[in-house]
Amino acid sequence: RPTTILEDWTCVARLRSDEQEFCRRGKRTLRFDVSILSTGGGQELAHTWCTFVYANPLPGYIDLQENDERTKVLAVALAFAVSAADGKLYDCEVELIKAWARENILEHEEQTSDQERGKLEKALNATVSYFSEGNKLDSYRLCEEILAIAPVGQRYEVLELCMRVAQANGSVAAEEMAALKDLANWLEIGGEKFRNMAEKILPLDMHEVVDINDLLGITSDMTKEKTRKHLNREYSKWNARVTSTNPEIQTQADQMLKIIAEARGQYVSGGR
Description:
With 272 residues, this protein is mainly α. The chain has helices spanning 61-83, 91-105, 114-132, 139-149, 152-167, 174-186, 191-201, 212-216, 224-239, 247-269; strands spanning 26-37, 44-56. It contains ten helices and two strands.
């Protein structure tokens, strides 16, 4: 049969590397198979293959799954650290963390074996014992690890869990708020986002100690004029909520407006 020869390389197709799904980051060995088929019956006329080593710069789907699982384990550890920040582990806080762990670490509970459930319960109980004995975690190191493997949305979920734990017994100790602020900082969650989350989950009347600066987002580097503008924005935000149909939001808005008025007298009228 006649033989057709291509005199030079011909581009038949381009496969973009950023459109491929890899299982892992790093060096991946790719195999390319090329066949020439007849136009009539699709008979294979020729076939060849080659391998190519590609350095994948992005996490693969197995990496992402493992990162997700690891982040959830670290989130549970941080939640216990927040619960123990005031030197107490309330049962309601412990049960909230355990319920979250069962729902999120054992995502497909119907497919989870008794052995896996038992392993998780054993780990949770060991963590409770660890903190009950007065031990501490290096929360900064855990946050560093989360920062390296988790997208910002999942970091918000970690912080929300910790806030829900602080909320569980109906009041937020100063030590718990300090721990939450540290976590937000170490997880690179901005101050405004932190305050927005706290306003919804930890309203003012839950705080055992109220820090006006933290509550309103006033920082030491703000000039008098910058503080004035910032307080005006806060006033507009909370004044709009006074007419809310939700009585809890109304109450919180009234409280915040009084605090803003106090801050204006302290920082704007009286100077800093």
